[in-house]
């Protein structure tokens, strides 16, 4: 079991000036799991990722990965000497090489002893075994991106960096790739830094989040806790809400529902064939949660949770407020009008019933 003391970490400090933009970050990231770099367009996510890769050199930058120094003062390990995998928005495969040859490219410089991921394992993880003899021009966008991810993995990186790998794909192709990314997350020890401006992708994949705004990391922490913060410096609008990690605990075969137990409560969700006992993640948007002072008996809403108001914060419109409700060890966020907050006389410490209108099982 990993403890906080021996969890490998990534420490990064970069200051980079450009006309009209400055990157200024000093962050520590966990050396395992998926860390999302999240923020609006132009907030500096790609620039930070490129600094981590050594594609951009911030003067006086500092980067240590699990005790190994990649940048410190005059010391700067060039990108090609850093054991990392980088996946761009658009898969950059060699057009004149088959999928197999694309995958084998770059393997030569990896000593046998340094191979943490075999080529076979990478092919299996991304489900591309049937594509090996194809030329890139005969692959769909989604397949091309899966090959690019397998190629990044096959060089046995110490870290995987992905820059919006799904951004160039349509919704159907995104849905095709997400399960493979989830497999990487579940089966590999390699930390993945994942740039995205999609709250949905972040909710599905990330364990940890760094919120970027105007070149700065304005919030960072475990995903579940960070999304429940009401003081996030960027407004998430319709995407405001929480994710909860839980276990699939019961199935109601008659009504095609499944019960997810999370720390502090239970929720019924639509049945998706997930086996009992499996770890799952649910996403609850703030707009789908309403609050009542008493238990509501005659309602169509299946999920009623008893909790306590913990905090009330501003929302993106002056008519609205976000209310964080503590339910056991977990937190929900509800979006209410300020008028409702006043009418119910809500304030921290007040017991309430949270009515959850919709819960999405996302992984
Ligand atoms: N090569 C460059 N030269 C000068 N300015 C640049 C360069 N690349 C990016 N910028 C600027 O730096 C800022 C941050 O860009 P960056 O690509 O890191 O943002 P981002 O958060 O990744 O955005 P997006 O989500 O749109 O990809 C932007 O203002 C951008 O215009």
TrEMBL record:
Domain Mop: 298-363
Keyword Cell membrane: yes
Tagged with keyword Nucleotide-binding: yes
Domain ABC transporter span(s) in chain numbering: 5-239
InterPro entries linked: AAA+_ATPase, ABC_transporter-like_ATP-bd, ABC_transporter-like_CS, Mo/tungstate-bd_C_term_dom, ModC_ABC_ATP-bd, Molybdenum_import_ModC, Mop_domain, P-loop_NTPase
Superkingdom, taxonomy of origin: Bacteria
GO molecular function: ABC-type transporter activity; ATP binding; ATP hydrolysis activity; molybdate ion transmembrane transporter activity
Keywords: ATP-binding, Cell inner membrane, Cell membrane, Membrane, Molybdenum, Nucleotide-binding, Translocase, Transport
A Pfam family assignment: TOBE
GO CC aspect terms: membrane
Xref: PANTHER family: ABC TRANSPORTER I FAMILY MEMBER 10, MOLYBDENUM IMPORT ATP-BINDING PROTEIN MODC 2
Protein name as catalogued: Molybdenum import ATP-binding protein ModC
């Amino acid at each position: 079991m990993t403890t906080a003391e021996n969890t490998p970490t990534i420490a990064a400090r970069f200051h980079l000036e450009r006309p009209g933009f400055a990157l200024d970050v000093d962050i520590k990231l966990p050396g395992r799991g998926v860390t999302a770099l999240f923020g609006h367009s132009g907030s500096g996510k790609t620039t930070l990722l490129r600094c981590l890769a050594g594609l951009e050199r911030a003067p006086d930058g500092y980067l240590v990965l699990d005790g190994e120094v990649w940048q410190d003062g005059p010391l700067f390990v060039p990108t090609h000497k850093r054991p990392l995998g980088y996946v761009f928005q658009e898969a950059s495969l060699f057009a004149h090489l088959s999928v197999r040859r694309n995958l084998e490219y770059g393997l030569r410089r990896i000593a046998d002893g340094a191979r943490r991921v075999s080529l076979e394992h990478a092919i299996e993880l991304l489900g591309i075994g049937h594509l090996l003899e194809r030329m890139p021009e005969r692959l769909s966008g989604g397949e091309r991106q899966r090959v690019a991810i397998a190629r990044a993995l096959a060089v046995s990186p110490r870290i995987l960096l992905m820059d919006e790998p799904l951004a160039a794909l349509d919704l159907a192709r995104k849905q095709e790739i997400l399960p493979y990314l989830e497999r990487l997350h579940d089966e590999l020890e390699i930390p993945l830094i994942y740039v995205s401006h999609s709250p949905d992708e972040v909710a599905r994949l990330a364990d940890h989040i760094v919120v970027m705004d105007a070149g700065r990391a304005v919030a960072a922490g475990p995903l579940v806790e960070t999304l429940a913060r009401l003081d996030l410096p960027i407004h998430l609008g319709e995407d405001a809400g929480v994710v909860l990690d839980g276990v699939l605990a019961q199935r109601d075969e008659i009504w095609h529902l499944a019960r997810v137990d999370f720390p502090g409560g239970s929720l019924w969700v639509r049945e998706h064939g997930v086996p009992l006992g499996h770890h799952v993640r649910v996403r609850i948007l703030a707009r789908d949660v309403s609050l009542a002072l008493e238990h509501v008996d005659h309602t169509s809403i299946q999920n009623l949770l008893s909790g306590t108001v913990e905090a009330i914060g501003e929302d993106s419109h002056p008519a609205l407020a976000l209310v964080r409700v503590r339910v056991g060890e977990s937190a929900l966020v509800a979006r209410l009008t300020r008028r409702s907050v006043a009418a119910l006389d809500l304030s921290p410490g007040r017991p309430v019933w949270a009515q959850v209108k919709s819960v999405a099982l996302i992984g």
